[in-house]
User: What shape does this take?
Amino acid sequence: MKAVMCNQWGPYDQLVIEDIDSPIARPDEVIIDIKAVGLNFFDTLIVEKKYQTQPELPFSPGGEIAGTISAVGDHVIAFAPGDRVMAHVGYNGAREQLAVQAQKVTPIPQNISFEIAAALTVTYGTSLHALRDRAKIKPGETLAILGASGGVGQSAIEIGKVLGAKVIACASSDEKLVSCKQLGADELVNYSKTDLKSELKRLTDGKGVDVIYDPVGGDLSEAALRAIAWNGRFLVIGFASGTIPKMPLNLTLLKGCQIVGVFWGKHIEKEPEKHQTNLSTLVHLCANGSILPRVYKLKPLIQAVDGLDLIAKRQVQGKVVLTV
Ligand SMILES: NC(=O)c1ccc[n+]([C@@H]2O[C@H](COP(=O)([O-])OP(=O)(O)OC[C@H]3O[C@@H](n4cnc5c(N)ncnc54)[C@H](OP(=O)(O)O)[C@@H]3O)[C@@H](O)[C@H]2O)c1
Assistant: This one.
């Protein structure tokens, strides 16, 4: 079978397409014939050994997949060949087939396509966990999202609206903000043109923002924290800018606010039952039309490098999905 392989640590343009052996299911595993693979920013890091998860070489990038089950191990009773499913696998998704532990697999209804299902788990899972479990956001609270047109950013807009927040989408261009508006953002801030802190203060009548969702890092983080409300929650999601900011702790004292770390990958390991509940919630919300991952570019498996290039060059609004 075909696979996108990382045989040595290095930039994603060193990935190669290879024929490798098809997997065989262990007793607790199912074989998924992969139809779609969701790419994420972390795929650009994992192949360079710059991500928290460092797989053994060789491996394939691609952390989230959707497809059809083609075989089940002897102990698996919850699934049968032909079932439509999705799974978060962390890596090894960019290939034609994968053996996955049955407990990591979630069924998908007929009205959710494989491309959409493959774009649902990581970004929407992160945002639901961040906003509901970590920030405990309440209806009517204000939510500012940095990098709002990116993968996790777009999902935070939709999940924020589902949870009843007033969403302020922040991004680096007016073009990117158009897609945020279409997703339901109430207010828009172009942080390459305006001062982020003053604009967030202005949009909240001087009160400040209740919850800040930050997947970007760099200089934007402190500017946003300076515009947080009393009792606010600053969610540390990621550092797409490449710079991990150092925050003056006096700000947390002065504003009575919390800086809250969000590590979805660890959460699914440590709190598997909560994760499964969150996944079922996401499938339900997607099936009834409350959320819809926006697939910015569909690319065939063999063009995985082009897909990662779009992400690395900051050109994506939503998700890049590989079709298999
Ligand atoms: N904590 C968790 O559990 C968790 C889960 C998933 C993802 N993440 C992290 O969240 C971050 C974003 O992931 P994503 O998949 O949403 O990425 P993405 O789709 O590429 O979006 C990232 C956004 O960051 C902004 N950005 C600023 N500087 C950038 C740069 N130098 N390169 C690329 N983007 C830059 C861009 O928005 P503007 O141009 O508008 O600024 C872009 O839309 C990553 O660091 C990822 O590892 C964390």
Remarks:
- The pocket of NAP is lined by residues 40-42, 122, 126, 147, 149-153, 171-172, 176, 215-216, 237-242, 262-265, 311, 314, 316 (CB under 6 Å).
- The chain has a mean pLDDT of 97.
- The chain has two domains: 2-120+293-323, 126-265.
- The longest helix spans residues 272-287.
